[in-house]
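ok posting inputs for the FE2/S2 (inorganic) cluster job
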Amino acid sequence: MTTSITAVDRDGTQHSLDWEEDQTLMEVLRDNDLPVLASCGGTASCATCHVFLEETVAERLGERSPDELELLEDAAGYRACGSRLACQIEHDQSLHGIRVELAPEN
Ligand code: FES
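and the output
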């Protein structure tokens, strides 16, 4: 079964994207030409893949690592619950249908 998500661009445009099992959320966004720089290549050290998740989804994913949290707290628009680094989110079928919003650029 295909995992599909809705990504909301910084200008509010919505994109329906398929999420393959071998991709992180960052890779889904980047590979579909959304403006996610991912300059660290997915190693949780640049914060250019900062996204907002719905709070219920963020809660389900569990705690962020200390490194992820430290980067996010300095990122533009940081939200205590919904902010995540997309490169740290692995594919999971249970994430089918989620809505992901790109955070502002730093
Ligand atoms: S791609 Fe650099 S922190 Fe996610």
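notes: The radius of gyration is 12 Å. The chain has three helices and five strands.
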